[in-house]
User: Fold this.
Amino acid sequence: GENVEQHPSTLSVQEGDSAVIKCTYSDSASNYFPWYKQELGKRPQLIIDIRSNVGEKKDQRIAVTLNKTAKHFSLHITETQPEDSAVYFCAASRTQAGTALIFGKGTTLSVSS
Amino acid sequence: GAVVSQHPSRVICKSGTSVKIECRSLDFQATTMFWYRQFPKQSLMLMATSNEGSKATYEQGVEKDKFLINHASLTLSTLTVTSAHPEDSSFYICSASAVAGGELFFGEGSRLTVL
Assistant:
């Protein structure tokens, strides 16, 4: 089955700096890679996702890159703000009915002002 | 976006009792729902895949007789933690997608505390 590794486990940056979180996956058939933000005690919220037919996707300050050959994908947050502080999870799955997302272990991002 | 609702959000029970958690897709039909468990400061771990009208598929290490899953309709899946023990205390979250391979929507989560 799929296995997703995520690094780093914790990341501290100054407000305005960029933050990068990296993930690798094992199943070469995986073709859907979402990123979630989770605040304490709440459900995960999708912030951006990418499918295997593209190498990069951007949404304002957030971008995701995908390297299918190397089986890794990354989340980039620019101009970080204190409200970006949360736990971020990457995930991977095949896009077929009945296939669950497999999550990385999470990265706790702290943005200090 | 699509809405998945979960109930109860918090439950406290005594050791040895059973607890039922409901997961509903409010504005779409979900042939498949997924149940995850999240311990403090850890990731979401897939417990089982709930299939409407058939038996659930459990992940390795998850006891099917302890975590009973019923998916009796296209909008409702239930997870029953039987004979709960303190080590079952966790955050249980269900999820479903409106279309195959589409965005996965999560319920609010249910925090179970077993005394």
User: Anything to note?
Assistant: The radius of gyration of chain A is 14 Å. DSSP finds no helices and eleven strands in chain A. Residues 93 and 99 of chain A are 7 Å apart (CA to CA).
